[in-house]
Specification:
Elements lengths: L6 E6 L2 H11 L3 E4 L4 E6 L2 E7 L13 E3 L5 H10 L9 E3 L2 E7 L5 E6 L4
Parallel strand pairs: 1-4, 5-8
Antiparallel strand pairs: 2-3, 3-4, 6-7, 7-8
Length: 118
Amino acid sequence: MAAGIATIWVPVEDMDRALAFYRDTLGLDVKSTSSEWSELDANGLTIGLNARESASAASSGGAVITFQPDGTIEDELERLSARGVPIEGNISDHEWGRILPFKDTEGNDLQFYSPPQR
């Protein structure tokens, strides 16, 4: 049985580019760096950036990292768009909350999530 999440690891092609995205665009704190493995703090959860040996196309249906926005989802859409981040659709509203899908510099699926306003 799993006792919790130790680390979420994300495959990256270019460690410097990926670090810049997660640090500068998403505002996460860098815990450690190397050319093969780097760690960031996402509010107490470690995100590990794992350098791949060779490029491979990502298949659809993989894991998605979901972040809490610092402000509103609209604010995050504006901020990400201004930085040229690939937005993967519109903000969508659901009874369980709102999401804004986007991609990191390495093509990994990410999103912002806000719970429903009641």
